[in-house]
DNA sequence: TTAGGGTTAG
């Protein structure tokens, strides 16, 4: 039945958008136009959302042109929706243009722009706008915190959260997942525990998003007990909750536990997704469960080929080469349904390093150099293979090559939190005030461990 | 009828 008036047409389109039927919403919009009904600012607000979710920039541009023809672009609803659409498509210039066309921009327009700026890596601009905008609400704070958290600006995200609380703005269920992801990234267990406590204080009941972030946060900070406890306390669990648990086990080297959790998850009737499989493969990898991992991959290939991504294939290469199954790994690489990127060869050379496979390491390093002559990691790995095999001449040749080609290695770092302070250490870093004591203690630990291993092997 | 903010893997 055709819609005669714009109000009922907009309501119908809005209902489709809310139900996630975005294609149908766009189709209905076209029909409404064909019926000769002129859309209003609310109609554009709704359909633009559908175009954004579908990531359809061409549809967005058509809608923009249509709104312009009707003289609606100065309206703040249309302006904000256009702004949000362009920002999410990564077209920041068009987003700014939409804001300039808006006659009276409000807190929504500014928040949409902030979110877009952060998504496109423009932190300083976003922060400047946030500081000077005339009105800020909870959603603006969440946009800043969430944007920083997703951009990896963990410290900024946590500081913003603290600032927000100081200003008396009450965080909601959207605030906490972002903050918890950030404290997890920073490895700040103590800070995260306080955030957990404040979530209980402000929210009372924790929803599935907050619960999932807690499970992941505790596991990523190495506290598996608290992670499992947070998981058990969740009233409602979805596939993301199970993924958080499985990945937590995997990251902490508990491959068997990850597999058991997966079995329980299947028993509840939930289907795994790509993240579940990745977590499982990762867990098997680190626990040396080669056959189990390979079997899971094969099962996914048969039952859910749609979830397989290059990362999963790379994990299998890693799994096989770590287990010294180089022939299987090479065969697997040859049979890949796509052209392997540099990461695949790095996974293979990693195994060569563990098992001192000098010949294969050399040929793989050649391949990596062909793909990316500036890549340092393969040089380092190759030189490690040589030094493990005792060919010091080759080691010094590689080191010379690295120097001559002006390649720089990116220094890895680790960190630990002690009494709410995070201490960061780089490779060979002696700048910590207690550096000497730390090294002495590490030495003592390593010595004891080697002793243990020696005792075990002579038993 | 209406525009802006959330979780898991790498």
Automatic annotation (TrEMBL):
It comes from the Eukaryota. Gene3D superfamilies: Tetratricopeptide repeat domain. PPR repeats lie at residues 5-39, 106-136, 137-171, 238-272. InterPro entries: E_motif, PPR_At4g14850-like_plant, PPR_rpt, TPR-like_helical_dom_sf. GO terms for biological process: RNA modification. GO terms for molecular function: RNA binding. PROSITE patterns: PPR. NCBIfam families: PPR (TIGR00756). This is DYW domain-containing protein. It comes from Panicum hallii var. hallii.
């Amino acid at each position: 039945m055709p819609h005669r008036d714009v109000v009922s047409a907009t309501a119908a389109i809005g209902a489709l958008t809310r139900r996630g039927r975005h294609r149908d919403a766009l189709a209905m919009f076209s029909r409404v136009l064909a019926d000769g009904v002129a859309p209003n600012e609310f109609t554009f607000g709704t359909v633009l959302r559908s175009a954004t979710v579908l990531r359809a920039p061409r549809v967005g541009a058509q809608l923009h042109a249509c709104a312009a023809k009707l003289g609606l672009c100065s309206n703040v609803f249309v302006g904000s929706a256009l702004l949000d659409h362009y920002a999410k498509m990564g077209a920041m210039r068009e987003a700014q243009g939409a804001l300039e066309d808006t006659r009276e921009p409000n807190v929504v327009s500014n928040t949409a722009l902030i979110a877009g700026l952060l998504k496109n890596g423009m932190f300083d601009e976003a922060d400047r706008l946030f500081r000077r905008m005339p009105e800020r609400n909870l959603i603006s704070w969440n946009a800043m915190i969430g944007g920083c958290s997703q951009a990896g600006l963990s410290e900024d995200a946590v500081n913003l959260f603290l600032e927000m609380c100081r200003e008396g703005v009450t965080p909601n269920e959207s605030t906490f997942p972002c903050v918890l992801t950030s404290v997890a990234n920073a490895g700040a267990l103590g800070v995260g525990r306080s955030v957990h406590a404040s979530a209980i204080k402000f929210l009372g009941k924790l929803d599935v998003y907050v619960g999932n972030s807690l499970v992941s946060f505790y596991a990523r900070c190495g506290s598996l007990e608290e992670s499992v406890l947070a998981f058990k306390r969740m009233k409602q669990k979805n596939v993301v909750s199970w993924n958080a648990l499985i990945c937590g086990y995997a990251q902490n080297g508990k491959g068997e536990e990850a597999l058991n959790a997966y079995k329980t998850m299947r028993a509840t009737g939930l289907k795994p997704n790509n993240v579940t499989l990745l977590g499982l493969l990762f867990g098997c990898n680190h626990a040396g469960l080669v056959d189990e991992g390979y079997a899971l991959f094969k099962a996914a290939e048969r039952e859910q080929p749609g979830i397989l991504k290059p990362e999963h294939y790379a994990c299998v290469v890693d799994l096989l080469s770590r287990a010294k199954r180089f022939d299987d790994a090479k065969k697997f690489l040859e049979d890949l349904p796509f052209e392997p990127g540099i990461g695949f060869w790095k996974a293979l050379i990693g195994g060569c390093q563990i098992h001192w496979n000098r010949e294969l390491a050399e040929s793989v390093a050649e391949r990596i150099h062909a793909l990316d002559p500036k890549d340092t990691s393969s040089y380092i790995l190759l030189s490690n293979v040589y030094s493990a095999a005792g060919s010091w001449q080759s080691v010094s040749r590689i080191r010379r090559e690295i120097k001559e080609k002006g390649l720089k290695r990116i220094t890895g770092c680790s960190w630990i939190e002690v009494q709410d302070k995070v201490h960061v250490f780089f490779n060979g870093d002696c700048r910590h005030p207690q550096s000497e004591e730390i090294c002495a203690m590490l030495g003592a630990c390593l010595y004891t461990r080697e002793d243990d291993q020696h005792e075990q092997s002579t038993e």
